[in-house]
Structure formats: structure tokens, C-alpha cells
Amino acid sequence: MFDAVLVGCGAMADGWLRALRDTPELAAAVRLRGFVDLDPRRASALAARYGWTDALTGSDLPSALETLRPDLVFDLVVPSARRQVVETALVAGAHVLSEKPMAASLEEARALVAAAQQTGRLHAVVQNRRYLRGIRRVRALIESGALGRLTQVHADFFIGAHFGGFREQMAHVLLLDMAIHTFDAARYLIGARPVAVYCRETNPPGSWYAHGASAEALFDFEEGVTFNYRGSWCAEGADTSWEAHWRLVGTRGTLLWDGNEGFSAHVVAGDEGFRRPLRPIAVPDLSAPLIEGHAGVIADFLRAVRSGHAPMTEGRDNIHSLAMVMAAIASAETGRRQPVTP
């Protein structure tokens, strides 16, 4: 069993703790021995709410690490505090799983990659969209070759989201707070490295956000694949799923995916006519059970710690998704195409 310390006991913690409590594989593998937050009362209240009444609680992370010597640290702090928390935990000998984004800047993300390498510990990031049945089924279809060579990927994300609070005052709110999920999903599906982006960012009339509630971004990937993102957090009347709506075009056919479990795929079935005849193809179901969402990320992280192999969302990989966000923001600010440089 792994001993763990959870750092950052705000609203995000509930999703993590429900996953740890309600997933048998995780409940049997993780013992939460410490809860740390800037407000020690919040740490105590969270521990009590989930039944970890014997856990150490407080606001001093170095002291908690020295006392408990945990195997794992779950990092749920705000991005501006992430570097200090992760580096402190890695140096103390713990493997770290962080909330997204990986860091507040690419410079800090590079420092975390270096810290993990220097300490010989894992640092991974929660990109939970990779652990959903729908995206795994799409990835399997692409890898089967049924669509031919992938050439174009399009993702539409349109939701009228009234969060209130800090998001409505953020600069680049869509790109910084949400688009990284879609960008990371695109990287996972395309299986190649993003190299450049042109992005246009707007705040449409009627937006209840201070800045950047909508964006369009066109990415170039290696191997000639393009990824076109259109998104808005102030588009009401016809919401997409939180996982976006997708069109994936290959040299033999096209897949439409609603981001959940809705699929429509057709491939060319003849070589004559102005518009070639098509035939539908099925998107096969998964051949093995899948632990989804946050629980899936945590389970993969635990397997990686046991085996010594890299988890799917290790920092060395996830920095490329953060680089997509930062390059898109730079393009929106300058009006010019920008390289994607992790």
C-alpha cells in the first residue's frame, strides 16, 4: 500500500477523493496519511469529511513530508504554487501527481521535468480525458488503419458556462483553463508532435467573461496533420459535450465523434463517380475494462510507480500540451503564427 499526502484541500479535492474512495483498486492501494492546505482548518475538515480521521493535517508541507515520508504526493494547488510544491515533494523522495496545468509557465514546466529526472521520481499530470472510453475507441480505430492515414482533425467546443468567481476575471480564460484538455486529446489522437499554431482570440458581445472567452486555433503537426480548434465558453443554445465534438479525416474516410459514445464513421467503398460511394464502419468497443476519468489517471500513475515505466501523462510528455496553450496565447497576442516549443 502507498502512503500519500494530499496538498491543496479546495473544491478540486472532492473529485480526487471520491475516485480514491469509490474505486476498489485505488481504495486498496492508497492510504492518505496527510492533508495540507494554506488554511489548516480546511485540511482538517476535508480529512474528516472523507473519514481520514487519523491523518496528519496542517499547512506546513516540508514538515508533513519529514514526518510522514510518503510514497506519493497528490498536488491540487493553484498553478502559481505548483513548482514549489512539486519540487519540495520530489526532493523529499515522493512521486507526484499534479492537477492540470502542469505549471504556470513553460519555464516552470521545464524546471519540473528536470527536477523529476534529477531526483529519479515520477511527476505526472491529470489529463483525465485520455481515460475515457470514447477517446480510447477513437484511438483504436485510428491505429487500426481503417480511416487510412490521418490528415485533418477538427474539434468544436461550445458551452455557455456560468461559473462565477475567478474564471470570469481571467485573461485568456478559454485557452488557459479549458482548451488544454482538447489540445491534449488532439495530441493523443494524432500521435505526432505539434510544431506551429495560428490563433485568434475574441471576447464576443454579450460575453460575461472579462477576456478571451472564444478562440480559433489552427495547429500544424508533424507528418502533415492539421488540427483545427474552435471554442467558446459564452455560446448558449447548442452545447457540445465537455469533451468537444470531433471530425477526424483520413485518406480512406471520416469519423464523426460527439466526445462521448456517439460515433459515425464512413470509408470509401469504390473508385468511380464524382463522389465516391461510401460504406459505414463500426467503431469497435474496448477489448478490456477501463477505469475512467480521475480514477484512471491515478490507477495508471500507481502502476507506473510500481513498474518504473512512464505513465501516459508524465511531465516529459505533458509539457507538449502546455506548449500548445502557450503558443496559442502568444499567437493571439501577436497576431502571428508561433512555433510550439516545449
From TrEMBL:
InterPro entries: Gfo/Idh/MocA-like_OxRdtase_N, Gfo/Idh/MocA_oxidoreduct, GFO_IDH_MocA-like_dom, NAD(P)-bd_dom_sf. PANTHER family: CONSERVED EXPRESSED OXIDOREDUCTASE (EUROFUNG), OXIDOREDUCTASE. This is Putative dehydrogenase/related protein. Residues 4-123 form the Gfo/Idh/MocA-like oxidoreductase N-terminal domain. It comes from the Bacteria. Residues 135-255 form the GFO/IDH/MocA-like oxidoreductase domain. It holds the Pfam family GFO_IDH_MocA. GO terms for molecular function: nucleotide binding. It comes from Rubellimicrobium thermophilum DSM 16684.
